[in-house]
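Q: What would this chain look like folded?
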Amino acid sequence: MFSTLLIFHSIVRWGILISLVVSLFFAYRGWLKNKPWTRFDNYCRIITVSFVHIQLIIGFWLYLISPIVDYFLNNFDEALHITQARFFGMEHITMMVLAVSFITIGSSIARRTKDSKKKFKMIAIWYTIAFIFIFTSIPWPFSPFTTRPYIRFF
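A: My prediction, written as structure tokens:
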């Protein structure tokens, strides 16, 4: 169960990154060039939020069954000094929940706003902050905190 969830978590990460980059590209383009908000822009917003919320559910599930997190929670004082345990037990989840919150807030504001330029601006600002949080909190192979492969396989 844990390995399967970890693989799905790894795969969905790429869906988030791709949809987030696409959303950011069109948000900045629409904002800076005063483009009208289109159905495609709305689809990008919805797809990004959907990927992020699916990942949040998978991530919470992983958090509950992860042996690293279990070790972190049961040996807190010792685990704080172990980079990998601290990263997954505290840092990764905190930053990702914040990123999900920023994407959800930006999407919600944009959904309710009537003006196209303001819609694009809200998506651009909130999604950019979330992108920074996400990109710095993914355990990339080059990460100084802990490393994981670019993609996991079955």
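The chain has a mean pLDDT of 94.
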